[in-house]
Amino acid sequence: RATLRVTGMGAVGALKAKMFGQDVAAAPAGGGDSALLVVTAPPLPGGEGGFGEGAATLDAAVSLETPQGGFAAASLTFVAAPRAVSAAFSGSGGKILVAFAAPTDAKGISACDGGALAAGQGALVGAGATCSWESSSVLTVNLAAGATVVPGNTITISGALRAEGGLSDASAAQTVAAAAPAIPALPSFTLTGPSQASACDSATIEATGSSSRPLVFAWSTPASAPANLTALLAAERGGSVTFPASLLTGPTVITATATNFLGARSAPVAHAIALAQEGAPIVSVLLPPGPYTASKDLYATAVVQYSSCARSRGSLLFSWTLSERGGRRAVVLTGTAGEL
Questions:
Q1: Which superkingdom does the taxonomy of this entry point to (predicted)?
Q2: Residue 329: which pLDDT band, with cuts at 50, 70 and 90?
């Protein structure tokens, strides 16, 4: 309903109102103000489809006619029920942001499945996923562990949403496809493993990092590496590789890249390994994932395994050297403990 103030047309109770070419109900508002006329607008022709693509409001004319043939017109605004116009993953892939064409009356935070999203979508967004209204026109789906939704999948928004101020009809349930982020965050990880191993041992190199979903890895070696080692690494897709050190014929650089479920691929990360004297300890240096800042200490930890063909397993002595690559000083720091 819409209330109009009418002047200069006589008694409002005698006026005839029309919209979309048909008579509509109109009656004085009452309450002692004889200039107010309440017009009951008819349904919008075409329903919600009458708003047009992407439109949240539609202005329509109401004409008023006196018994003597006098004529006047006014404009009424129809407000569309909330309509989701886009959905996209955040750069990290941990959220989906759903944008609406206009502000809604929704607010707060709740469980997604059966709440802001229609029931039965726990497998898509993860059990325990929460949905929050960051603003009246943006719904954030905070994905939980186990989420399987990927770009191109659709999610279903629950019905019963109304425009801000309750001005519209309640919305029906609606689906929207989740798009990939415009700028996805690249996976980040470090490689840890021994820098040398003797021919009687196996070497394991592991990727360490954080991601909202499991990463798919690609492992490789330079063209000069032995074919058996290259083939073994090429068949691996997980976050670690293990191979007999006997496949090494000299210093070898092993490279890994990671791809996340959004299709974003990391920069290559390399790890160098060489053959050691038979029976030498197998030493790995552990560093936390970057980025690193000059204002914070960085700890490197040595993890040592005895070689399977070691003749003795006595006490270990450590010797660390930190060199500045391309700098003026060849050696920056030394140490003799298990951690530098």
A1: Eukaryota
A2: low
> Domain residues for 21?
2-79
34, part of any domain: yes
- Does residue 273 register a pLDDT over 70? yes
Q: Is residue 302 part of a domain?
A: yes
Q: Which residue in the block uniquely carries the two structure tokens 């929207």?
A: 176
Helix, strand, coil % over all residues of the chain, rounded to 5? 10, 40, 50
Buried b (16+ CB within 10 A) or exposed e, 21-35: eeeeebebbeeeeee
DSSP label at residue 151: T
| Residue 76 CB-density burial (10 A; 0-12 exposed, 13-18 middle, 19+ buried) | middle
Q: Based on the domain organization, do 13 and 108 belong to the same domain? A: no
Residue 43, C-beta contacts closer than 8 angstroms, at least 6 positions apart: none
Is residue 183, in this structure, part of any structural domain at all? no
Looking at the structure, tell me whether residues 109 and 44 fall in a common domain: no
